Amino acid sequence: MISVENTHPINGHIAIIGCGLIGQSWTALFLFHGHDVTAWDPDPAIRAGLTKAVKRPMEQLAELGQGAARPGRLTVSDTVEEAVANAMLVQENAPEHLPLKQALYAQVEGAIGPEVIIASSTSSLTWSALSEGMKRPSRLITAHPFNPPHLMPLVELFGSESTILDRATEIYTGLDRHCVRLRKDATGHIANRLASALWREAVNIVAEGIADVADVDAALVHGPGLRWSVVGAHMAYHLGGGEGGMAHYLSHLGPSQERRWATLGNPRLTPDVCAELIAGIQAEAAGRGIPELEADRDARLIAALKAREALNADA
Amino acid sequence: MISVENTHPINGHIAIIGCGLIGQSWTALFLFHGHDVTAWDPDPAIRAGLTKAVKRPMEQLAELGQGAARPGRLTVSDTVEEAVANAMLVQENAPEHLPLKQALYAQVEGAIGPEVIIASSTSSLTWSALSEGMKRPSRLITAHPFNPPHLMPLVELFGSESTILDRATEIYTGLDRHCVRLRKDATGHIANRLASALWREAVNIVAEGIADVADVDAALVHGPGLRWSVVGAHMAYHLGGGEGGMAHYLSHLGPSQERRWATLGNPRLTPDVCAELIAGIQAEAAGRGIPELEADRDARLIAALKAREALNADA
Q1: Which of A92, A95, A259, B310 has the fewest CB atoms lying closer than 10 Å?
Q2: Boundary (domain end) residue, out of A181, A200, A231
Q3: Which ipTM did the prediction report?
């Protein structure tokens, strides 16, 4: 492995541990913004294919037109120890299996200096569980991206030490990410809790026969989804309250919201419901396979991000 | 009142009953797309101010660059009967009070021909309740727009007769709206059920001290909200399942979703929680008043809609 000494800490060396879809996406994002990356995955086939796998996300990032004057250099390592040796931050994207991640951290901790941050992309495990048994738990943070990570701006952070979170924020902000910070460890962070709550009702609407899968998705994309891409849910109700804002909304419509909450469903993913969801999504996909649907999603995301950026540049 | 005979049914005469924010927005949208509109509101001050009130939404629509060669003509009537006399469709936007709406329908039914559609913008009442006691219940449909209606494409339809729903769909599609149809009458239609389900968890996250109001909103806008502006919730999980799609997602991650659903909150809007939401939104607003926040929302919506339109034009 050839490593490069970095003097500017924000363009410092990054280690990517686990190179599935999330790891590939992080790799592309760090390289694009000028970081040298050393990556490791236990699967030799994934290691061998990584350079090719990051090409498409790198192209998409170039289409968005951000990025460093010179992209970083990608090195693929055969061992964890070698991959993390020169890193200032280790981004871990291993499967969501607690003992496996804990074993990895032990291995990583043995090979890095005390100031190096370990950031877990975990979507469903908590910092408290992951940090158990570490020599230096404060160096671990959860840094949850949203799929696809090279396009979605969100990174959700939690950890025990604010100076470490500040350093991580600086690094991710340098990748044009938008960081939010949890005040308390929580399964599913913020975004997946919200997504899960919404999907529960989306499943319920199908299970109750209120509407088809495709119509539920269309209602979201042309209604609340579009609005939530520009204002959050709390802000939407603040604006829904007219001149009196949130206070007026809560005093006038709070009770009716509570009544509506009571009418929302609590579906189970029974075989019948699953069959209906699968048939419904096939109708919505209308013969388009996953790669085509993904390409369409990405093109629409890139267009939305460009529009957002143009507006921010004007402001 | 001066009325104009329309020969093209899709550019036919529209009556707007109730001219608050929703009614004003519908008025602008119909006018912009070439429909003549006759509007009525019980409040003389609102009637007097309507021509001025539709200017801003008309300008925003012009910014979006859609619209008819010649906008329709706006007439303000002093009585319901006069307003509906020549309409092919009556869009009702009265307050969400069942007896009030039912009394209005009786009045409207006495003044219109048998083929005229009455469309209610109701967000929280059901078709079954609203149509009770009507002479011809099948002429009533619910046609729920999403705020702000002149910018948001969604219209959610329900009614008892598919030919009437087909005609309404043709009219709204002519306004560049995206119609979805409910298979069953349901409080909150689709979009507000989804919005309500998401907001319940957004409130819970604040109530539990997991994150601040502003961070919850930012997570949504930079994460799931952005993604739901391009793919629906069901489609997002279909894509989250990799090559196996929804079927693979459900078999591998269905059980973990059910476990997550069980951990979502069921908050109450207690005085403490309300105080926290109000303080949180004030922090997020950072001194910006409602008009400024609304203008910002609208500018972002217009940019997102333009990006979407450009992409559809390319496809």
Answers
A1: A95
A2: A181
A3: 0.95
